[in-house]
Specification:
heterodimer, B: mainly beta, Rieske Iron-sulfur Protein, six-stranded antiparallel β-sheet, globular, binds siroheme, binds flavin-adenine dinucleotide, binds iron/sulfur cluster, binds FE2/S2 (inorganic) cluster
Chain lengths: 845, 117
């Protein structure tokens, strides 16, 4: 076998990691390792998602941000020097040496050193509590300083500066942005857009100071610092973040004499080679065509090109699109192409809507047939479409202004995704083309979640989500997989439609529903769905004659059916708290009826092996002892897990048990598209695992943090932090709204996690609905929840009090025996269902 | 052959038609055999098939949800949700599986099941 070549990568950031993935993939494909990989990683952790850095402030952890799949470096035999900076390249001997004294030889070398935030040499810039915003370590420091600070300023009003401002705002600091030029985001947007953006920022309580040049930072009178401007004015703040721009980290290359750009940056050719053909540079340290690309997508492209070059495939970097879309503090901001209308002879169309604070501008060529650029503030919904028009040079409609005028009366503006060629890049973060998505759909990935998982599209900045969805739907349509969102053959409606029909028309029985809006006899899909909606809307007893036949067997017999046709019994043990007396009752009942007894994963006790006819008798004993149904059988609230909390725990900051019990009692009996689980932890140690629940609540020094849409199960998902430091009343208000909004809009059997994954606009949108009441629904949602809570009944209590209902638990209508097929054997001193073999043996014995 | 079978049918009086919940099923024990009986529609049509679910091997079909798939009236097994044609016992998802179906008669609001003797 040929000697493996040594390939050394300096820098383990986003692009360096991408590069190694590309090489590893090719090694795997060829079945042999052409290259031995070695990498220097200056930071204290392996590659992570810098683009999502700010989400660290909304609850994401360093682990969540990691880009490295478990075992990646081990499986690919990659040597990593973590926390070690390469500090010298000897091009003659082809050796790299590091700060920690490691020295390695290389055959090929890749520089992926990224860039660093520029800190202007303003006197006083080295004072304490002055930070930059680039790494997780930076954020940890900022976050620590934020605990005692009251105010912060960001120097630099560009893209990153505004992100940093959001972080300060998220820490509840009084926030100011200082910008040298006359408008915010001067690179990307024009004066009109800048003015609108400024208005929005100020409305959100961020002070915007443009045209300010900071001349001195000194000790403040009322805060840690005082910033003095050249115009004689000043401002005080406890924290300063520098974000006036980035500079390529080219010091290593410079020192060993590789060609540099005039203003820095390592010069590369179309193959990403530097002036030394054994050395490549990729990502933010590289200068191509006189340009440094401060975005990740072009860096990823360079990584692929360099990797291809090294394994002998043809590929070339030909520049990249710098269009951007982002959501800053809930404000849509987007810029495409020639945003400043610099192209000769171009024409500009502008739409300004003052009251709604929307600003849109498009720049088209001389004869108005092609799009050159655009600026969108306040509403960037057609960003994806506009970008595609530009990138693919697609002819514009006769009246280009229709592209930015508001859509009225359902008229369709812009161009559909069909117009796009297969090579059109839909997701720039992960370089996913329309063709990639089409292939994925053809391979059977027919839901948004599947597409995300398989292509990674829309899992970065999220800017392409709407477009990916459109391509998916068009493809499904083409394949004849009619994008049929009908619930089933009996109703030409989605669950959400049915929910509205039932609620608005006050329909209370399935017969009426199917007569008025459906056809046929119904089925095991629409019947339980309708029953669940009836229960949410009207909350009748679910075994009422007109409802009983609609229920899944678990609901129909108020127990979970087991593999041998018996049922389990799960009484509610709110918050997992139970008195010794009640525990004894459970033991006595289990013993009396010979039930298998187990502690569940939901902090309660499950009694298995009850025959149909035994259910009412057993439940009577339990209800008499003060138990209620635990709804373990229902698509409804299951459990609210708790940790022991401040009552006993030395670390607890609030009463998690009491809160869990209150929440469980508030929402018990609530029927929903799927089961709902909660947990409450008394401090950030999170012993109740609240972040893995549909609703998770964690006590903080200042109130409760509310997480939503977490999930264990088949595909675990950590919850998203919806709101922080809530008082109890607000927390409950938000949960009411959240749950009702989910119930109103989710598909059948869609847990909150999947619902969130498919929710257009994601967490930001959910926040707008739940916290800002953007749909004007909040009062109604709260009222609907109040009605469910006000009409709660224990279904088992109602059942055992009605002899007619008890009759339904008779195994045979015409005989008083039980099912002879239900047979148990003993194991570890308890019963278990006999298997087929054992059943036969026992029958013959 | 056919006539012979008919002559040998013994009709068992099971219950009142009102004992079967609307658009749902109950189980009956006839000659030691478990039979699931369903009542469908406003002017109820009654059907009888085995109560035994060949997939889960539990006696549970009477506890399934009824409905139709295209023209066929069906019940869905409550355990793994396969559908069985109420008239013929044929499993919709698996052609090779068919449970027994039984003759049913309504007389004077009583439900009778016919078993061949
Ligand atoms: C009894 C229990 C296991 C145990 O012995 O610990 C259990 C038992 C069942 N689980 Fe579970 N799950 C139990 C805790 C959990 C947990 C842990 C938790 O709640 O903290 C999880 C993961 C957390 C989560 O749900 O996010 C869990 C994830 C599932 C899933 C996967 C859900 C998903 O979204 O992927 C299913 C399948 C489903 O619901 O479609 C499921 C379904 C089931 C069913 C209902 C399956 C069925 O249809 O027969 C089981 C029958 C319950 C019964 O007979 O009483 N069970 N199940 C636990 C009852 C908790 C309780 O007190 O109510
Ligand atoms: C807050 C924030 C938000 C952003 N948002 C977006 C966005 O929305 N969209 C977008 O496209 N881009 C965004 N970016 C930019 C994006 O993160 C960068 O384009 C991307 O990280 C560049 O990757 P890179 O690998 O070139 O550099 P980096 O990710 O910076 O990686 C370089 C790594 O090399 C290490 N290193 C440097 N020198 C050495 C040495 N001598 N030895 C060893 N290690 C060394 C560095 O410590 C660093 O870890 C954002 C950046 C930040 C900071
Ligand atoms: S989460 Fe905190 S309060 Fe609760 S038990 Fe754990 S350490 Fe104690
Ligand atoms: S463009 Fe950023 S996720 Fe697709």
């Amino acid at each position: 076998m040929a000697q493996k070549k040594k390939l050394v990568v300096i820098g383990n950031g986003m692009v360096g990691h991408k590069f190694m993935q590309a090489i590893a993939a090719s090694n795997a494909q060829d079945g042999c390792e052409k290259y031995e990989l070695i990498t220097f990683c200056e930071e204290s952790r392996l590659a992570y998602d810098r683009v999502q850095l700010s989400s660290y402030f909304s609850g994401k952890t360093a682990d969540d941000l990691s880009l490295v799949e478990a075992g990646f470096y081990e499986d690919n035999n990659i040597t990593v020097y973590i926390g070690d900076r390469a500090c010298h390249i000897d091009r003659e001997k082809q050796i790299v040496t590091s700060k920690n004294g490691v020295s390695v030889e290389y055959d090929k070398l890749v520089l992926a050193t990224g860039s660093y935030p520029f800190v202007p040499p303003i006197p006083g810039h080295e004072r304490e509590n002055c930070f930059v915003y680039r790494t997780i370590d930076d954020l940890e420091k900022i976050s620590a300083a934020g605990k005692t600070a009251k105010s912060g300023v960001v120097i630099g009003g560009g893209l990153l500066g505004l992100e940093a401002a959001k972080a300060l705002k998220d820490m509840n600091l009084e926030t100011h942005v200082i910008e040298f030029s006359s408008r915010l985001m001067s690179v990307q947007i024009d004066d009109g857009g800048g003015a609108m953006l400024r208005e929005k920022m100020e409305e959100m309580g961020v002070g915007v100071h443009t045209g300010k040049n900071t001349s001195l930072i000194e000790k403040g009178d009322n805060a840690v610092h005082k910033l003095n401007f050249t115009d004689g004015e000043s401002i005080e703040a406890d924290i300063i973040l520098f974000s006036p721009g980035i500079r390529p980290r080219d010091e290593l290359a410079r020192e060993c004499g590789i060609e540099m750009g005039e203003r820095g940056g390592i010069v590369i050719n179309d193959q990403c080679q530097t002036s030394d053909e054994d050395i490549y540079a990729i990502g933010e340290c590289a200068l191509w065509g006189g340009m440094i690309y401060g975005l990740v997508a072009p860096g990823y492209k360079m990584a692929q090109v360099a990797a291809d070059q090294l394994i002998g495939k043809n590929n070339a970097f030909k520049g990249a699109d710098m269009s951007t879309k982002l959501k800053l503090m809930g404000v849509d901001v987007a810029s495409i192409g020639d945003a400043h209308a610099k192209t000769k002879g171009c024409k500009v169309f502008t739409y300004v809507n003052g009251p709604d604070q929307v600003y849109k501008k498009i720049i088209v060529n001389e004869d108005s047939t092609r799009l050159l650029g655009a600026v969108l503030i306040g509403d960037a919904n057609n960003y994806g479409n506009l970008l595609q028009l530009k990138l693919n040079d697609i002819p514009l409609p006769a009246t280009p202004d229709s592209l930015i005028l508001p859509q009225r009366d359902g008229e369709v503006t812009g161009m559909g995704v069909e117009a796009l060629p297969n090579t059109a890049q839909i997701c720039s973060c992960f370089d996913v083309t329309k063709g990639d998505i089409c292939t994925a759909v053809a391979d059977g990935n027919t839901t948004m979640s599947a597409i995300k998982e398989c292509t990674k599209a829309s899992t970065g900045c999220g800017g392409c989500t709407a477009l990916v969805g459109q391509v998916l739907n068009k493809e499904l349509e083409k394949m004849g997989v009619e994008v049929n969102t009908d619930l089933c053959e009996h109703f030409p409606y989605t669950r959400q439609d049915l929910y509205s029909l039932i609620r608005v028309n006050e329909i209370k029985a399935f017969d009426d529903l199917i007569e008025q809006h459906g056809k046929g006899h119904g089925c095991d899909i629409c019947k339980p769905t309708a029953a669940s909606i009836f229960a949410t809307c009207w909350n009748d007893y679910i075994l009422e004659e007109e409802h009983a036949g609609l229920q899944d067997t678990n609901d129909r017999y108020l127990g979970n059916i087991q593999n041998n046709g018996t049922y389990s019994i799960v009484p509610r043990i709110a918050g997992g708290e139970i008195t010794p007396d009640k525990l004894i009752v459970l033991g006595q009942v289990a013993k009396k009826y010979n039930l298998y007894t187990k502690i569940t994963g939901g902090q309660r006790v499950d009694l298995f092996g009850a025959r149909l006819e035994e259910l009412p008798v057993i439940w009577k004993e339990l209800v008499d002892a003060g138990f209620e149904t635990g709804h373990a059988y229902g698509k409804s609230l299951r459990t609210v897990k708790s940790c022991v909390g401040s009552t006993w725990c030395r670390y607890g900051v609030d009463d998690s048990v009491g809160t869990a019990i209150d929440l469980e009692n508030r929402y018990k009996g609530l029927r929903s598209p799927h089961k709902i689980k909660f947990a409450v932890s008394g401090c950030t140690r999170e012993c109740a695992e609240a972040q893995s629940k549909d609703v998770g609540v964690i006590a903080t020094e200042n109130g409760w943090n509310l997480y939503v849409c977490g999930n264990g199960g088949m595909k675990p998902r950590h919850g998203d932090l919806l709101a922080t430091d809530l008082d109890r009343e607000t927390m409950i208000k938000y949960i009411d709204r959240f749950l009702m909004f989910y119930i109103k809009t989710a598909n059948r059997l869609e847990r909150t996690a999947t619902w969130m994954n498919n929710l257009e606009g994601g967490l930001d949108y959910l926040r707008e609905v739940v916290i800002d009441d953007s749909l004007g629904l909040a009062a109604q949602l709260e009222k609907e929840m109040a009605s469910v809570i006000g009409t709660y009944q224990c279904e088992w209590k109602t059942t055992i009090e009605d002899p007619e209902k008890v009759k339904a638990f008779k195994p045979f209508i015409n005989a008083n025996t039980g099912d002879s097929n239900v047979v148990f054997v003993e194991e570890r001193e308890q019963i278990r269902p006999a298997n087929e073999e054992e059943r036969k043996q026992l029958a013959n014995a | 052959m056919q006539t012979a079978q008919q002559e040998n049918t013994v009709w068992h009086d099971i219950c009142a038609i009102s004992d079967i919940p609307k658009n749902a099923g109950i189980a009956a024990l006839v000659n030691g055999q478990q039979i699931a009986i369903f009542s469908i529609g406003k002017q109820p049509q009654v059907f009888a098939i085995d109560n035994h679910d060949p997939f889960s091997k539990a006696n549970v079909l009477a506890r399934g949800i009824t409905g139709n798939i295209n023209d066929a009236l069906v019940v869905a097994s409550p355990i793994y949700k396969q559908h069985f044609n109420l008239a013929t016992g044929q499993c919709i998802e698996d052609e090779s599986v068919c449970v027994d179906s039984y003759a049913v008669r309504i007389d004077n609001n009583r439900v009778f099941i016919g078993l061949t003797a």
